[in-house]
Amino acid sequence: MAFEGLRDWMKALEKAGELKRVRAEVSPILEMAEIADRAAKSGRGGTGAGGPALLFENVTGYKGAQVLMNQFGSERRMRLALEVDSLDDVAKRIETLLHPVAPSGIMDKLKMLPLLAEVGSFFPKTVDARKAPCKEVILRGEQIDVLQFPILQTWPQDGGRFITLPCITTRDPKSGKRNLGMYRMQVYDGKTTGMHWQRQKNAAEHLRERLRATTSARADQVELMAITAGGTAGAPPGAIPPQVAARIHGERMEVAVAIGTDPATTFSAIVPAPPEVEEYLIAGFLRQRAVELVKCETVDLEVPAHAEIILEGYVDLAELRTEGPFGDHTGFYTMQDEYPVFHITCITHRKDPIYAATIVGKPPMEDAWMGKAVERIFLPLMRLTLPEICDIHLPAEGVFHNLMIVSIRKSYAGHARKVMHGIWAMGQAMFTKCIIVLDEDCDVQNLAEVTLRVSNNIDPERDIQFTLGPIDTLDHSSRLPNYGSKMGIDATRKWPAEGFHRPWPQMVVMPEDVRSRVDAICRSLGF
Asked: Which of 237, 264, 485, 527 is the most buried (most CB within 10 A)?
């Protein structure tokens, strides 16, 4: 049964022994983050497998407030969140949908009806606002103050307090489809925040579409392409060319933010879904039940009805403001830059709302386990384009976009390089800085085996390839913002057709029958 909201999920965590209540007084300025960081890096028995979820019940300066952190911070909790025994179970369900057995007769067609009905039940549905828990309290006008919630500052050089686990809804101006994304929000004051829409994200494209629709002169279009992230080339920080600003003054794009949703919905906000697929549908698929949405009070958008907190508002197309620094998941601070400003027009929330937050920094942290779930769940979608892929691994220390390790069924000379370029052409995977490709018999989840194979299998001059292209905005080492070089390493066995004519040795492996006979002896010896 799907978790209706955050509170159902917290009950399940507590029942499973995965939730610790923190009753000592703790400040939302740095202290909560330090506790959550230690929990994320601890794990049972010091394994580093992810410590408990934390519910802070005594927040300095916020009497009666509760803050939930590290809710996804272990593999077990990710499985609990998605209600599966293994993360690969979700991948198998996706494969069933992608590759159904073709019906050969009327009985086979009838057997497919339940599957089709099940898929139909995943689409989000809008419910009566009077029955929506997120509408229990409605604040407008002078009542609006986002700082009534215990928003965290997580690192000492951060530019201020940041909302770190928001589910942000925007609408594509062309198709009308909703997008649910997760972008940090620096709090400037009680009514305004930053909106960290990196240039290549869907919400940033929605903003550009609104800009394109608002201006008609082609000269302006060139300038507008640079506005969404990083300002305009050659202009002072935060500057928009006067001719553009005059044309778009007062034009707005509506935005809605949900904080504290059911785990499947929160997770869906980070998945690299194609723009054509709404994340609310993905959430319905993951939770095996439709997400209930409700209309906002002041903007034409829908939000999760069971969310703890909803922020409604808009960004002004002509307004940018300095955002950052922010201690990010790379383990480094991302520097200040210019981003859109979110103006809050209404706040709705449950009575005694629970504030959900996360912290990012040097891995492993909570986001590493969310990244592992993305890796397992979206492997079948990668295979649609590159069916030769056997497995992938995104090590936590590679912070998602810096390193991808891939095993393939190699079929021809240059196959590894074809896979590299295929990955770089695939949605958000275009940001991958380093790709390592190995043969199918390599366990890419085993970094010791990967290191052994790569260091033995490559001739660096022959097997390392460099290319230029888009780079993640958070990459501080690239030659230019959002643009730089990438590296591919072909660590597969080399073929004569690739110019290799020496014998290629086999790896040393003990026969399986010998291993089986020795198992019992080793157990009796205690190893």
From this structure: 264
pLDDT over threshold 50, residue 223? no
The hierarchical CATH code for the domain 386-512 is 3.40.1670.10
Q: Which helix (H) or strand (E) holds 384?
A: helix 379-385
Q: CB under 8 Å to 462, separation ≥6 — which residues?
A: 494, 499
Name which of 492, 471, 493 is nearest 480 in CA terms.
471
The question of whether 328 is a catalytic residue gets the answer: yes
Q: Is the pLDDT of residue 487 over 70?
A: yes
Radius of gyration for the chain, computed over Cα atoms and rounded to the nearest angstrom? 25
| Residue 10: partners with Cβ closer than 8 Å, 6 or more residues away | 19, 55, 68, 354
Closest CA to 489 of 444, 521, 428: 444
CATH of domain 123-356: 2.30.110.10
Whether the per-residue pLDDT at 245 is higher than 70: the answer is no
Question: Which among 208, 257, 252, 213 is positioned nearest to 229, based on CA atoms?
Answer: 208
* Catalytic member of 328, 367, 472, 490: 328
State the distance between the two ends of the chain, measured CA to CA, in whole angstroms: 42
Domain residue extents for the chain: 123-356, 386-512
- Partnered with residue 488 across adjacent β-strands are 435, 465
Q: What's the mean pLDDT in 24-40?
A: 96
What's the pTM value of the predicted model, to 2 decimals? 0.86
pLDDT in tens, 321-365: 999 999 998 889 998 999 999 999 999 999 999 999 999 999 889
Whether the predicted pLDDT of 217 surpasses 50: no
